[in-house]
From TrEMBL:
The lineage of its organism: Bacteria, Bacillati, Bacillota, Bacilli, Bacillales. This is Nickel import system permease protein NikB. Keywords: Cell membrane, Ion transport, Membrane, Nickel, Nickel transport, Transmembrane, Transmembrane helix, Transport. The keyword Iron-sulfur does not apply. It is a multi-pass membrane protein. Residues 97-298 form the ABC transmembrane type-1 domain.
Length: 313
């Protein structure tokens, strides 16, 4: 509980810093949201109309006043309203987050179905044919950009053979191509990571002791070696999960998938600052909570960490 309390305190400070930095950088970005909102078929707008809208949105106030007003609303869980749709930002995000989480979850399933068996077999049969295949897969996966792989999947499985839809959202079939695109890219990394982590675990003294006690190979592998090997994998997983959510932006645009990524791209183009700010904070909270869960998981995956913490008290 002490660890959780400390992490939550750090999360609060992190969010304040993140909100301030992102707010300032958005104000420094080129483009005027008022002009974009008033522009209709390239018709000219008057200065009075622009000033009126600026006053309505509070953009005529000093930047520090705008930030203070926004921050006070944030503590009330009010992210403001979208400049374009006039809808509350939290509703805009809530409508898109389930789609992005579904894509993220399905991509993780693809990654685990490939990385866990292939990485495990590669470690168990080192320098055998399965190990050579996993190395080739890892090199190819790390070399091919995900958006290029997505284009290949669209051309092959959608345009040429018509097996899966390449755009939009509706059924589970719409998740197949974007999930494969993200999952294969991640699997290439985790295959090698799991292999190296398992090989390191096999050389630990506790594995030798377990064999000397006559434990079965399956028990040694699953209860000792595999558990020990998961610690570094979970570490990287916590970091890459945030990157995965960020990576869905490109894939959502590529497959015209109506998730948070598509929403944020549209908001950036239209200078919809409240939506951008809400997205940044949502991502910050999500990534920070994932890191907290990763720290807690260490105590179960590697009991030595908990023992060291108790000895340091």
């Amino acid at each position: 509980m002490k660890l959780v309390g400390r992490r939550l305190s750090e999360l609060f400070i992190f969010l304040i810093a993140l909100s301030f930095i992102s707010f300032v950088f958005m104000k420094l970005a080129p483009g005027d949201p008022v002009k974009l909102m008033l522009q209709v078929d390239d018709l000219a707008v008057t200065q009075e109309e622009m000033e009126s809208l600026q006053t309505e949105l509070g953009l005529d106030q000093p930047v520090y006043v705008q930030y203070a007003n926004w921050l006070s609303r944030f503590f009330q869980l009010d992210f403001g309203n979208s400049y374009i749709t006039k809808q509350p930002v939290i509703e805009e995000l809530a409508a898109r987050i389930p789609s992005t989480l579904a894509l993220t979850f399905s991509s993780l399933v693809v990654m685990m179905l490939i990385a866990v068996p292939l990485g495990t077999l590669s470690a168990l049969y080192k320098n055998r044919w399965i190990d050579h295949i996993s190395r080739l897969f890892a090199i190819a996966g790390a070399s091919i950009p995900s958006f290029w792989l997505g284009l290949i999947f669209i051309q092959l499985f959608s345009v040429k053979y018509g097996l899966f839809p390449s755009m939009g959202k509706g059924s589970l079939f719409h998740l197949v191509l974007p999930s494969l695109t993200l999952g294969l890219a991640m699997a290439a990394v985790y295959v090698r990571l799991l292999r190296s982590s398992l090989l390191e675990s096999f050389g630990q003294d506790f594995i030798t002791s377990a064999r000397a006690r006559g434990l079965s190979s399956a028990r040694i592998f699953w209860l000792h070696a595999f558990r020990h090997a998961l610690a570094p994998v979970v570490t990287i997983f916590g970091v890459s999960l945030g990157s995965l959510l960020g990576g869905t932006v490109i894939i959502e645009v590529l497959f015209a998938y109506p998730g948070v990524g598509q929403l944020i791209i549209d908001s950036i183009v239209r200078r919809d600052y409240p939506v951008i700010q809400g997205y940044i904070l949502f991502m910050g909270i999500f990534v920070a909570l994932i890191n907290i869960l990763v720290d807690i998981s260490y105590r179960f995956l590697n009991p030595d960490i908990a023992i060291k913490e108790m000895n340091n008290r």
